[in-house]
Each structure stands twice: as C-alpha cells, then as structure tokens.
Write a structure and sequence with these properties.
InterPro entries: Isoprenoid_synthase_dom_sf, Polyprenyl_synt, Polyprenyl_synt_CS. The chain has 349 residues and is an all-alpha fold. 66% of the residues lie in helices and 1% in strands. The chain has a single domain, classed as Farnesyl Diphosphate Synthase, CATH 1.10.600.10.
Amino acid sequence: MAFAPGLTFDSSAGRWPLRSSSLSHSLPPYRHLSICFPSAKAADIKADISSASVATAEFDFKAYMLEKSASVNRALDLAVPPQLHPKLMHEAMRYSLLAGGKRLRPILCIAACEIVGGVQAFAMPPACALEMVHTMSLMHDDLPCMDDDDLRRGQPSCHRAYGEPLAVLAADALLFLSYRHLADMDNYPSGVPPALVLRATAELSRCIGAEGLVAGQVMDMESTTDDLNKSVDIDRLEFIHRHKAGVLIEGSVVIGGIMGGGSDCEMKRLRRYARSFGLLFQVVDDILDVTKDLASNKTTYPKLLGMERSREFVEELLCDAKSHMEDFDPMKAAPFLQLLNYGKMLLSH
C-alpha cells in the first residue's frame, strides 16, 4: 500500500507544496547478520561521518535531551488534565504517563520532524500520542497476566497502586486518547495539512496492532518457556525485538518525518535508521542483562550467538544506522548520531 501524496514543507514560504510520492509505508526487514557494506562504501561512510564529527562534537546532547523532554512533559501535562472525570481513572492515567522516563520516542519524533525541515510544533501532538501508547504498553506489560511487575520507574506499577481493573481501563483510555490527540487539528499550528495527520495516524496504527507491538508481545508470550529443550531461533528473536519494542521507535521517527514533510528519500533513510537503531538497543539490552536472562532461561542474542558475535552485531547495526544519516545536515543529524554513541557507550561501562 502506498502513502498518500507526499508533502514537503517550504520553510521560506511557510507551507507544504504538494508533490507526488510513491513511497511504500513498509520496507522489507533486514535479515539478521546480513548488514554489510562493500569496502568502498564503508570508506565513504567513514569519511562522511568524520566530516560531521566537528558539528556533532559541538552538539550538547544532554542539554538537547533535557530541553526536549521538558517540552514533552509540559505538553503531556496539558493533554491529560487532572480535574477530568472519572477522577480516579484520570489520576491513574497521569500516574503512569507523568512518572518520568527518558521520553525517547517523542524526542525522536521531534528530531525527525526537524531534520527534514519541520519545526517542533508540527510534531508535538504525535510525539505526545506516541508517549501515551508507550505508557499504555508498559501498563499492560506490568499486569499479572503479562510480566507481573510490581515496580515501574521506581514506583509501584499502576495495577499495584490502583488495582488491576482500573489499570487496564486507564491504559485503554490512554490508547484511545493518543488517537484523539494525534487527529485533533486544533492541536496543530494553522496550515498543517490534514493529509499529513492522516498519514501519521495510519503509521501509528500499523505500529501498535497486529503488524507491530501486539504481534511482538504475542510472539514473546509464545516463546516464553521453562522447557530447556524448546528453542527460539534467531529469526523469531529478531521478530520479537523488532515488533515488541523496535516498531514504536521506528514509528516515532517515521511519524516525525511525515509531519516535517520529508521527501521519499528522506523517509526511506529515516525508517532504515530507526530499524537499525531500535534493534541495536535491544541487542545492547540483551548483552547488559545477560546474567539475569541466563538465570531465567530467556532467549537472547548472547545466548544464541555468543557474547563476541553479539557485540559484533551491535557494531554492524551502528554502522548501518549511521550510514542513513550521512546525507542529512550534520547539526540536525547530531541527536540521532549521539543516541547511537550512547547505545555503544553503555557496553563500555
């Protein structure tokens, strides 16, 4: 299925002139352990990244993350006012939504909008919607019928604080609020084309449903077993990682690019960056949690590939993700490159 006609924001004119587009909303997934480059291409990538290193070094990553997360938190606070009724349900929604966190997904959404020429105001409504969806997924994950976790972000999980029935309903309410918040044109500056919002809504639906997050959760549940003789192969593990967590990261970047009016080529590069970025952080997480995961017989990349090959895979994903940033403005690409460096840095500590 192809996207609706593409739109590119003209910053000098303050509008999006219509332009034809044939970009498909989905790309074939990478095969595991198949990310590689011919030597000439790898040399070009290294040179391009080196030329951007000065701009990246001047970029204050910590200040950027703090400023963007503060903006997102203010918008989320306004999106779910405390005085609404039923009061206890909205209290539970705010309890989980405003409990903290890095706000990685909304920040990626805003950064992707800005890298293709948009501004933060275009991306803030979908950024908030993405964080609502992410929070909903965590509330569901914590339930006794799922992971049965008592704590989330250093405080009792929602079902422990408000009871299981209300936690389920509050999570459902956040999910539906996310769509309303994304689709409400009153949340956007004047002149934002409804066609962009429609495309963003379709992308969010794909990321959440049977093609995305829900599919990953189901596969994860089916793969959780105490039977030491029942194995999960690398294809299944990659599917789980890409869909349970990676797909919402992909959606965040793609939706931001949509709202900024990204071109076909820009959208393709953003999507591929996000796919490698999302899987990279899952593999890093597997490596960091290797002791705990082995004790629980959880299938991970280190378990299937070994620690050394898993670290090599991280480097391959890192190289691939960086390659998709090479044609963007270095300063606007800096958040994306610094996030990759952060993922790699975690392995050195």
